[in-house]
């Protein structure tokens, strides 16, 4: 929001109709996040461009034809180096990045250590719930950098979950249970039960 205000693409946070396809917990980064909002435009004839209702007709009629603003250059010029806007596209005013999103992907990495996780996660996935839909779940071993001292316990395990959305702390709960399965403290079948609890099947 600071970048949008600094470049004067919005006048205030309240009136820009901001929406985003998902949210992350503090300390968690979103890659390829999608957001939608109303910003200043220089091209009144551009697709989905509109004038504020309070604009006088004489102002509209006398406005010179201009090229659209360089949104990427403007925003990336003031954003921190670890944040970049990679693309933009015009959308209808009533477009919601959150409600129009049909899939979200969550990746969670943890040390492999001595965990035994030979589990077919797709067999344990929940096909459908009244709240969220899980499309695909997978576990992948990410080998550590080769060195004389490295071993398989230095590898990382990456959990990837694709779904329509995720409940608050849902991934953390799944990873916690998965970790207990890997340590041998729980049976793989417990993943099904916990998934049902997470998705609202059991109350």
TrEMBL record:
InterPro entries (alphabetical): PsdUridine_synth_cat_dom_sf, PsdUridine_synth_TruA, PsdUridine_synth_TruA_a/b_dom, PsdUridine_synth_TruA_C, TruA/RsuA/RluB/E/F_N
Keyword list, A-Z: Isomerase, tRNA processing
EC number: 5.4.99.12
Cellular component, GO annotation: cytoplasm; nucleus
Pfam families xref list: PseudoU_synth_1
Catalytic reaction annotation: uridine(38/39/40) in tRNA = pseudouridine(38/39/40) in tRNA
Superkingdom, natural source: Eukaryota
Domain (Pseudouridine synthase I TruA alpha/beta): residue spans on this chain: 126-191
One GO BP annotation of this record: mRNA pseudouridine synthesis
Molecular function terms from GO: RNA binding; tRNA pseudouridine(38-40) synthase activity
Top-level class of the enzyme under EC nomenclature: isomerase
Family per record: Belongs to the tRNA pseudouridine synthase TruA family.
Protein name as annotated: tRNA pseudouridine synthase
